């Protein structure tokens, strides 16, 4: 029994987001007894753990708790759906509280790394790695003023935050679809589909959530972030060719689309070739939705 208990749990990595920095300490925490490991007990740190279901274990009435470095996994099984829902909700609420404390601390420490941008949300999502197959990979994601950034594991240090695996500029990102089916422990995944304009074209990514509450939170943060990014930028432009003529396409957050001629002898803004409001794109059924 002692040997089995010794194999349970993991240690958190060090860094400015490590619990040793004291940002998780509250009056409530100070008044609570500290659980220590012994031959018959083990305490598992929950900070930045990935709580999910049906990823490594597809047995009914089970939940999975993955370590922040994704090297360890604790699988818990209950006797009924009610018990597993109770445990899941309790762990989910605790993880939310810990993440909020870590987010506040991260915003105090990462101003120089994120170009003074604020982190609005962070946590684990599962990314579909092959659009033709049902294969998913956990990613630690964060949404800032400017981008959605992805990491393969929790970025404990400033250096890690400065080197994300992928970043999606919110200005060029939109949610095109999200599921309305699925349930805790159900067979139907709860997903959102995101499209982002890149230099190589439009990239599509599908993310899986464990609850509709998580889906609603991420969609809200991303949509609000994109709207704020557009209002801050106000206008973007790119050069293109239209009917064999070199032109410049201007997107304005209020005026919509304007195509300008690039040949202007006076050196001005260019002759307007055509202009269209945003709602015309939606009416054309050509917005990818």
From TrEMBL:
This is Beta-2-syntrophin-like protein. One of its GO terms (cellular component) is dystrophin-associated glycoprotein complex. It is found in: Cytoplasm; Membrane. The gene is sntb2. SUPFAM superfamilies: PH domain-like. Residues 118-227 form the PH domain. It is a peripheral membrane protein. Its main location: cytoplasm. The keyword Repeat applies. SMART domains: PH (SM00233). Keywords: Cytoplasm, Membrane, Repeat. Pfam families: PH (PF00169), PH_17 (PF18012), Syntrophin_4th (PF23012).
């Amino acid at each position: 029994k002692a040997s089995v208990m010794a194999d349970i749990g993991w240690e958190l990595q060090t860094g400015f987001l490590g619990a040793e920095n004291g940002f998780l300490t509250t009056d409530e925490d100070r008044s609570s007894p500290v659980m220590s490991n012994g031959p018959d007990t083990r305490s598992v740190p929950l900070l930045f753990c990935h709580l999910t279901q049906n990823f490594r274990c597809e047995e009914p009435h089970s939940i999975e708790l993955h370590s922040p470095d994704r090297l360890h996994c604790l699988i818990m099984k209950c006797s009924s759906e009610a018990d597993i829902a109770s445990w899941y909700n309790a762990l989910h609420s605790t993880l939310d509280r810990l993440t909020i404390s870590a987010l506040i601390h991260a915003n105090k420490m990462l101003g120089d790394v994120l170009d003074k941008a604020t982190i609005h949300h962070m946590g684990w999502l599962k990314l579909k790695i092959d659009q033709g197959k049902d294969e998913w990979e956990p990613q630690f994601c964060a949404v800032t003023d400017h981008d959605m950034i992805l990491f393969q594991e929790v970025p404990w240090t400033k250096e890690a935050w400065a080197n994300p695996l992928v970043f999606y500029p919110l200005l060029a990102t939109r949610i095109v679809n999200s599921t309305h089916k699925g349930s805790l422990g159900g067979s139907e995944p709860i997903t959102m589909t995101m499209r982002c304009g890149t230099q190589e074209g439009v990239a599509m990514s599908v993310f899986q959530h464990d609850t509709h509450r998580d889906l609603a939170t991420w969609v809200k943060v991303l949509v609000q972030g994109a709207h704020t990014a557009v209002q801050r930028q106000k206008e973007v432009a790119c050069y293109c060719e239209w009917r064999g003529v070199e032109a410049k396409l201007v997107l304005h957050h209020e005026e919509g689309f304007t195509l300008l001629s690039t040949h202007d002898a006076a050196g001005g803004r260019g002759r307007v070739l055509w202009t269209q409001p945003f709602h015309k794109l939606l009416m054309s059924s050509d917005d990818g939705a």
